[in-house]
Amino acid sequence: MGHKTTGRAFIGSFTSAGGRGVIAAAVDGETGALTETGASDAIADPSYLALAPSGGAPVLYAVSETEEGAVAAFDIGGAAPRPLGAPAPVLGASPTHLAVFAGSLLTANYGSGSLSVLPVRDGGEPGAARVAQHHGQGPDPDRQRGPHAHQVLPDPSGRWVLGVDLGTDSVHIHALDAASGELTPHGETALRPGAGPRHLAFHPAGTHAYVLNELEPTLTVCRWDAVAGVLEPLGESPVLPDGTDGPCYPSEIVVSHDGRWLWAANRGHDSIAVLSLDETGERAELITTVPCGGDWPRDLALDPTGRRLYAANERSGDVTWFDIDPATGIPRRAGSLDAPAASCVIFC
């Protein structure tokens, strides 16, 4: 008897590196195994994806991580994603991340160091972009000569939009006017110079946030005040064991649904770091690292149950899944799907 399929997943990939674009997959509810059902290469380099409801039917959005920068909408009612209209320019270069918030699409544009806001039309298609430009630089002459917005996300309270900027060593906090689609700068939290913050994840209680740094393999633990819109750094934790040699560029961070564990992907070291969080959420301690199942883990994602972790391994071209030991938080490899130049995985 076959396993019951209970969900779907979508994988982004770099078409310029041999990827198939936006890949749809069925998820086996018992094993977590992925089976590809179709793909669309309608836009170039759809490196990051997000889902949003639209009149009851979910719509999938993808950035086009190209110099021109665009975002596209897809109907996911069939086996393969189907484009909804033409891609919309984000008016920024090389968008690396997007989120859906307050009836708008938000993109983080790495190349130009900006955030874009695009209204979502009734049919789910994105409209014309408005841009909020970041300013500043950091001490790394190769990576921080100017702003490089790498992630954009709303906070759990729905009051604020946060932009994590690798180039400025800071997290920019904005207020979004849902009616006009305009982002208004509210504050900027400076992190340690040269750390190169890349992605942020919130504790499920909404009182703390964790910033993963790309240029130095560390995690910055922060307190988050959702009323005031203030992010306060408290300290750093390593995401690699002492004495680890070789370059490492951490990429993505995930917090468990119960707030006990945190996982970080380490490119170069090709591992998943497992950290424990204390009851307050203010202390993160590295427990161990485990192999990511491939080469260059660009993204991590939990399935909706929180029992499995998925790694998109860009250079080895696969999405590998892991069963999580609920007592230790340690992932154990359970299988993989071939996905050339994989960059992102999300669940529906």
Structural class: mainly beta
What is the ordering of alpha helices and beta strands?
Answer: EEEEEEEEEEEEEEEEEEEEEEEEEEEEE
Shape: globular
Strand content: over 45%
| Average of per-residue pLDDT values | 96
Summarize the structure.
This protein is mostly beta strands and 348 residues long. 0% of the residues lie in helices and 54% in strands.
Tell me about this structure:
It is a single chain. The two termini are 25 Å apart. The protein has strands spanning 5-13, 22-28, 34-40, 49-54, 57-64, 70-75, 82-83, 88-89, 95-101, 104-109, 114-119, 130-133, 149-154, 161-165, 170-177, 182-190, 197-202, 208-213, 218-225, 230-238, 249-255, 261-267, 271-277, 284-291, 297-302, 308-313, 318-324, 331-338, 342-347. Strands 4, 5, 6, 7 and 8 form a five-stranded antiparallel sheet that branches. A four-stranded antiparallel sheet has the order 3-2-1-29, with no helix packed on it. Helices cover 0% and strands 54% of the residues.
Structural key phrases:
mainly beta, 5-stranded antiparallel beta sheet, 4-stranded antiparallel beta sheet, 29 strands, 0% helix, globular
